[in-house]
Design goal:
Largest sheet of chain B: 7 strands, mixed
Distance between the termini of chain B: 48 Å
Radius of gyration of chain B: 21 Å
Helix content of chain A: 10-25%
Largest sheet of chain A: 6 strands, mixed
Largest interface: A-B, 25 and 23 residues
Shape of chain A: globular
Strand content of chain A: 35-45%
Number of helices of chain A: 3
Strand order of the largest sheet of chain A: 3-7-8-6-5-4
Strand order of the largest sheet of chain B: 7-11-12-5-6-14-13
Order of helices and strands of chain B: EEHEEHEEEEEEEEEEH
Number of strands of chain A: 11
Distance between the termini of chain A: 46 Å
Number of strands of chain B: 14
Oligomer: heterodimer
């Protein structure tokens, strides 16, 4: 199957796909140091292999769920490391022909304007990492 | 500031509470009231991710030896968030309410505020400001013919005519003192405020107040007219009416050999 490789993960009850080339690692969630005054979308800082990462909770960002996230997907933007909290990770899959979501997305997800893919009969939202982290940053600005 | 509960339990007793004086330039000092000081360390501070910069109260992040991420506070950012813009520029004081020809050496820092009950904005010189505090409504009383606040185990006169603390759970006050009598027994008073303004540079060489008493005079800052409070005179008046409880004074005891105590 041709197409770009994506990591399939679950956020709340929603399956998402993240570009595999942007994923540095998937790790068990380390101890989270909370950030006072930060919104739920950014629950804290974590340290992984002596590297400081800002934890972003996509479920809180899109108001999806408060289910504990046992895994973190590591990525970076402009030299800053981020850990994306997810409920589960499934597989790495090539996605070739993303489409649009058939219907109205919930408000939180709609803010990310995701494309949609159908992988083995499962609806998957293709998430732009920059946009996800930017949305969490916007919620920080509102909380300030 | 951080919206955190004061820690309780082992290692966090009130005895550990401390004030951290932060010199932020231009002769200005900001003070952080912290529940506990643990240690000092040399740390490599890493830039704050853009996502967190907008919070305005953190200056960076670091990873100390214990491997637990740590946030570095931005003291100036905190002060600006809590009490308004702080001018840390240098040189040009032309827009800080001074009259023409004033000497910058005679200017000083003032905290300006809106008094309760409306009226002209007021300012108090920072060297007299002890704290900005939220006094619980049930700690404010009319007693002895005047309003008083129970605060830090003392009764402190609230300096305001016909003061009404309102219906809120707290009343915001500026605690002023002049240090006379020592740090533990200084003359103090509370100034009730509707809103705290910002730190501004004002010069004393200005048109004096026509009425003698607790006002030095009136100045302007931008388009605002500001009354400058004469704190020593105010405290003179308050001291004459003071309801402060008698406080035990600890006097060092010295024994001089051959001369007794």
């Amino acid at each position: 199957m041709s197409g770009e490789l994506h990591l399939i993960a679950r956020v709340g009850q929603t399956w998402i796909a993240l570009p595999a080339e942007r994923v540095e690692a998937v790790v068990r969630m380390p101890e989270v140091v909370p950030i006072p005054t930060a919104p739920a979308a950014i629950p804290g800082l974590v340290a992984i292999r002596s590297r400081l990462l800002t934890l972003v909770d996509p479920a809180a960002t899109v108001y999806e769920s408060d289910e504990p996230a046992p895994l973190a997907i590591i990525t970076s933007i402009d030299g800053h490391g981020y850990a994306i909290a997810v409920q589960a990770v499934d597989d790495v899959t090539a996605i070739s022909t993303p489409g649009t979501y058939p219907g109205d997305l919930a408000e939180g997800w709609a803010a990310l304007d995701p494309a949609m893919a159908n992988v083995d009969g499962r609806i998957i939202l293709m998430i732009d990492l920059d946009r996800l982290i930017g949305l969490a940053g916007d919620q920080c600005r509102l909380a300030a | 500031v951080l919206g955190m509960e004061m820690p309780t339990g082992q290692g966090s007793s009130g005895d550990d509470r401390a004030l951290i004086l932060c010199h932020v330039g231009r002769g200005r000092t900001l003070v952080l009231d912290v529940p506990e000081v643990r240690d000092h360390d040399e740390l490599v501070i890493k830039p704050l991710p853009p996502t967190l910069a907008s919070l305005g109260i953190y200056g960076g992040v670091t990873l100390p030896d214990n491997g637990r991420p740590m946030l570095v506070l931005d003291v100036i950012g905190i002060a600006e968030k809590m009490i308004g813009n702080i001018d840390l520029g240098d040189g040009d004081l032309s827009d800080t309410g001074q009259h023409g020809g004033d000497d910058a050496d005679t200017a000083s820092d003032w905290l300006h505020f809106s008094p309760t009950g409306g009226g002209v904005e007021m300012a108090v010189e920072m060297r007299f400001v002890r704290r900005i505090c939220d006094v619980p409504r049930d700690m404010i009383h009319f007693a002895g013919g005047q309003m008083v606040a129970q605060f830090d185990d003392r009764l402190i006169v609230i300096d305001a005519v016909n003061y009404d603390p309102g219906d809120g759970p707290f009343a915001r006050m500026i605690l002023v003192g002049d240090g006379i009598g020592g740090a533990s027994d200084q003359r103090t008073a509370m100034l009730p405020v509707a809103a705290i303004g910002s730190l501004i540079r004002l010069n004393k060489a200005m048109v004096p107040s026509q009425s003698k008493g607790r006002l030095i005079g009136v100045t302007q800052h931008g388009r605002r007219v500001i009354e400058m409070i004469d704190v020593p005179t105010l405290l003179d008046e308050v001291a004459a009416l003071s309801l402060e409880k008698p406080r035990a004074v600890t006097v060092p005891r010295w024994v001089v050999p051959g001369a007794g105590e």
